[in-house]
Amino acid sequence: MKKVLLRLAVYLLSLVVFVGGLGFLGYSHTQKEFYNALREEAVPSLEGVTIPPHDPAKPTVAVVLGDSSITTEDFDFLIPYTLLSMTEAYNVYAVAPDKDLKALSGGLDVVPHYTYAELDALLGKDPDVIVVPFMPIIAEATYAPTREWIQKHANSDTTFLSICGGSGNLADAGLLKGKSAASHWQAIPSLRVFYPDTTWVEDVRYVHEGNTLTSSGQTAGIDAVLHLISQQVGEPTAASIAKQISYPNYEFVANPKVEPFVLDYKFSTYILNSTFRWQKKQMGVLLYDGMEELALSSIFDSYADTGTTRVRTISRTMTPLTTKHHLNIVARHTIENAPQLDKMIIPGGDAPSLAHDDIKFWNEKGKADVTLLIHADSPNRYVFEAPLEDLAKQEDLLTARHGVKRLEYRFDNIKLEGSALPLMTYAHLLLTLALAFFTAFFIDRKFIAKKSICCLHKRTL
Known about the structure:
Radius of gyration: 25 Å
Shape: globular
Distance between the termini: 24 Å
Oligomer: single chain
CATH topology of the largest domain: Rossmann fold
CATH class of the largest domain: Alpha Beta
Helix content: 40-55%
Strand content: 15-25%
């Protein structure tokens, strides 16, 4: 009986060491590639960076960037920045503790327009709207200036808009005590533990209570921003912007009530991909002047946070580029020094004209198995649809379906075609299980079974 228990312990321990250990290392590495994708390349000169002109007659929106030791979630930052800029009714600025280059999740680098102190000096009052994206609170000392700046302006005159997990940052600053709030469905269980003095709501796309407006996950942030625009600028403007971006869920702006998402088998696919997908697709995204911020966000959120794909930013030069709405971005690789890629994505419906010379140079010097102008063939589609469809073809249906759910996309306009299962991920998992089994089997035969045979032989003698 003792030997049976010993064998069982050996096999269980081997399973824990190999599956648990390798799984932990794989998951940690995957999360770091997306949520801690800080720049390791040399920072180029940031001289000549432009700042949108300030109009004192317009209300001012400050879209927060975290400090340089963390990433700011790219969707949470880019979507409100873009939609509020499209109204032309606001001054919209990217603000941060300092003017150093800041990383968005997945590896997109942004140059802040102003520091917190500079914006305060420019306005001489509180910003009218402060947008708070998700920023992981890893180091208290470096995050403290962001928390303190949010708290400094916590009054009824400023509207605080959080996107997705950004509601956790608002709760951390004490702005959601005694209030109801929304967040990404995957984050709500932990938020209830850390911030029990907030009522976390799962069955709405956004919650507007007093001067706080919190959205649930990803695309629900669009509903929250359009709701704010409808309230402050006018519903016709909100409807016009929804039409311009071909947004298919505009009905949620007026009625945010939905059936809540729950954890299911699709989430296990995300975990397994993040844990056991060791060979990730190497993808580039071409940056160019005048590009659409929403199109850019669609690449990072559709591919980079699936556990299957590493995304790298590439441009003709390392000088800062200016997007359609005056955001300054910097690539991490030039076309000539970019690594070999499995795929190069060129986002934006206007890419063939806006990036004509860049595309030509890429075709001459770039190194990729496939180059895809992902929005060019259907410039009037909602920008997240084509990338999610391509993800299904590149990977599998389970991975793409979780991507749709993670983005909280609630429209049936996406046609997913591809392999049914993430076969490479399952192969790596089976290989790990086999390694654990054969290691335990070797220990069993070498030490436990051999000792049993020796003992039996001695009793026979």
